[in-house]
Amino acid sequence: MEFIAGLANGFMDVFKAGAGTFASWVAGIIPLIVVLMTAVSSVIKLIGEEQVDKLAQRATQNIITRYTVLPVLAVLFLGNPMCYSFGRFVQAKHKPAFYDAAVSFVHPITGLFPHANGGELFVYMGIAAGITTLGLPLGDLAVRYFLVGIVVIFIRGVVTEKIYAYMKAKEEN
Q1: Domain spans of the chain?
Q2: pTM value > 0.90
Q3: Which of 80, 111, 136, 170 has a 20 to 30 A CA-CA distance from 32?
């Protein structure tokens, strides 16, 4: 009987721990995300959607900005999954590579801009908990994630563009 009671208590303790985590997020991270989303929406409204669209269009003109600036703007301004809609600015032959770059950036941006991808926030917060336990600053981690993310999305964009061009050429032959 004691064994069954222990299992029942353990089962409930799991949910109590989850509820405690959820309550801390309701009081902490969720308001932060809402405020960040509001701020980004406000910036877009202040700048003007047309201006943001023009900037995105200009970012498609060369390979460097196409796979660095454009995905960063898309993820920052629109978040996941709406960021992929910025693919409308790139030529059809660049769409797969843009998508690869954008989808690869939804995690690295989370440390600095958690509103961009709530789903990835769980991963980042787990890593952040370990960093905090070690007594290391989170700001350094967030900046490093962001900068390495930009390098990675550039490489992925270029490689995917080359692979797509190769496969398309083979298909036409």
Answers
A1: 1-47, 48-172
A2: no
A3: 136
